[in-house]
Amino acid sequence: MLTRPIRDVHASTPRARVVRISLAGTPFPYLAGQAVLVGGHGSHHRRPYSIADAPERAEADDCLELLVGVDQDGLAGPHLPLTPGALVDIEGPMGRFVFPPAPTERRFLFIAGGTGISPLRAMLRRALDVPHRQIGFLYSARTASEFAYEHELRNLASRGEIELQLRVTRDGSATPWDGTRGRIVAADLAPLVHGEETLCFVCGPPALVADIPRALQELGVPRDRVRTEEWL
After folding, report:
1. 117: how many CB neighbours lie within 10 A of its CB?
2. What is the pTM of this model?
3. Which pick of 61, 188, 216, 228 has the fewest CB atoms within 10 Å?
4. Distance between first and last Cα of the chain
5. pLDDT tens-digit profile of 68-104?
């Protein structure tokens, strides 16, 4: 277990904060997609959070980046103080929902719901280093104000690095939205699936994780080419 200080915290969405924890020069090897257990120093309560950046970038920045859900008061809960300088205990890495260290595939599709974007962002950043790759990214959020890393994703799309779809599942946001709405179905995925050899990664609420593999199978993607992880 490591004990390290929080370097900085900033708002990503009204219900999520980007939290960067200093590694203080300590190596922390992990695979893109893995998680850590994190809690306030000395606390018996720790919760899992996926690391939201690729391993090589975490090493270069000397920190772990997490996307932490918060309540209406901006609090993560008693297990985790969101204050720069606060000490936190880190256990891990853990998890088998990972991007292959040396993939033979060249076509990838990432499907995220809510804070399920965290491990997929780490995988995406790793996939961007794969030569001659083709990447699709579909991100579903409850409202238009809840797309974490939206600016980054839109920039990648504008440069032709990824094919991007954003969609909201509920009304009621103060942020205007004239894009796609509703639950994801096979027709939404079809433009992003480029053959049955596409390697797909799905992370989000249980309903999304249950529905997407079936939709992909309708499009000819074998079930063994779909990797899933539930993440609220």
Report:
1. 30
2. 0.93
3. 61
4. 25
5. 999 998 999 999 999 999 999 999 999 999 999 999 9
